[in-house]
Specification:
This protein is an alpha/beta fold. It has one domain (9-299): Ureohydrolase domain (Arginase, Chain A, 3-Layer(aba) Sandwich). It is built from ten helices and eight strands. The protein has an eight-stranded parallel beta sheet with strand order 2-1-3-8-7-4-5-6, sandwiched between helices. One of its GO terms (cellular component) is cytoplasm.
Length: 304
């Protein structure tokens, strides 16, 4: 039986950004996920939902060396940081719809800073990729490959510094789940930072149930709660074709659903991102429907 979140108030915040990625289209992800009946279905679960609309990307901006579209990515994250902070101050759960994964620099920074006086947060990052590059290790310059590193204090710091003196999340409370497409320099940085990584091979050998038990233990031990950042490219493309960075042989739809269900059962979820849904590449909104279902399961929807 799921343990429904005690906080029954949610703010849905869309982020129309795809400039952190190489392929365009994920900026329309928030619209597609809403179209998949997300908000009415959350209300059926007993939540009071405020739809805060979407943060839009500035039309123009400059890049920096090895950080493409730097100005626009950071401007969006600045807005998101303040939106999420306001949501938390209002006593509500922030649910952020992407958009590419660069947005997590703003959402996670806001959550970690808000809870700074109470303790550390934990992070479960379900993704085919590590997102642990910085401007020196990146092979592409795409900033959606940097946010996890940034929020943990491994750079680029300017990606998460909005004048608030960032509160970096210690890697001992962070875990990467189901990764199977790491850059070589990125993997070396993760090992140096002593990042907790439970890759797809662990899912294959141990099963998603055991992997998520360990992930929840890591992120939930001695923390005020868990931020779940879920990238749909962790799911094998047969089930989730609508994403800009698909990687073959990912987790199945059922494994993804189980992971979300177990986060709900932990009773520790305090915030969530669902990112990288690309309607242009999708099949009849299939991936957005899955994204909506994942969100609902993470927030306590029960099969029986």
């Amino acid at each position: 039986m799921s343990i429904l979140n005690k906080n029954k108030n949610i703010d849905v915040i869309g982020v129309q950004i795809d400039l952190g990625a190489s392929r365009k289209g994920v900026a329309m992800g928030p619209l597609a996920i809403r179209y998949a009946n997300l908000i009415p279905d959350l209300r059926k679960l007993g939540y009071t939902v405020r739809d805060k609309g979407d943060i839009l990307t500035p039309v123009e901006g400059e890049s920096r060396p090895n950080m493409l579209n730097y100005d626009q990515v950071c401007a969006v994250n600045n807005q998101l940081y303040h939106q999420v902070t306001k949501t938390l101050r209002d006593g509500r759960i922030p649910l952020v719809l992407g958009g590419d994964h660069s947005l997590a620099a703003g959402s996670v920074s806001a959550v970690s800073k808000y809870y700074e006086d109470q303790g550390e947060i934990g992070i479960i990052w379900i993704d085919a990729h590590g997102d642990w590059n910085d401007n020196n290790s990146t092979l592409s310059g795409n900033m959606h490959g940097m946010p996890y590193s940034a929020v943990c204090g491994w750079g680029p710091d300017e990606m998460v510094d909005f004048g608030q003196k960032p509160h970096f999340v210690p890697t001992e409370h962070c875990v990467q789940v189901a990764g199977h497409d790491f850059d070589i320099p990125e993997a070396a940085r993760m090992k140096k930072a002593r990042m907790n990584v439970l890759p797809i091979t662990d899912v294959d050998r141990r099963g998603m149930h055991d992997v998520m038990e360990e992930a929840i233990e890591i992120a939930g031990r001695n923390t005020v709660g868990i931020h779940l950042s879920f990238d749909v490219d962790a799911i094998t493309p047969e089930y989730a074709p609508g994403t800009g960075t698909p990687v073959a042989n990912g987790i199945t739809a059922r494994e993804a659903f189980l992971a979300a269900e177990m986060v709900a059962q932990s009773g520790k979820l305090i915030s969530m991102d669902l990112v990288e849904v690309n309607p242009i590449l999708d099949d009849k909104n299939k991936t957005a429907v899955m994204a909506s279902e994942l969100i609902q399961l993470a927030l306590g929807k029960e099969v029986y």
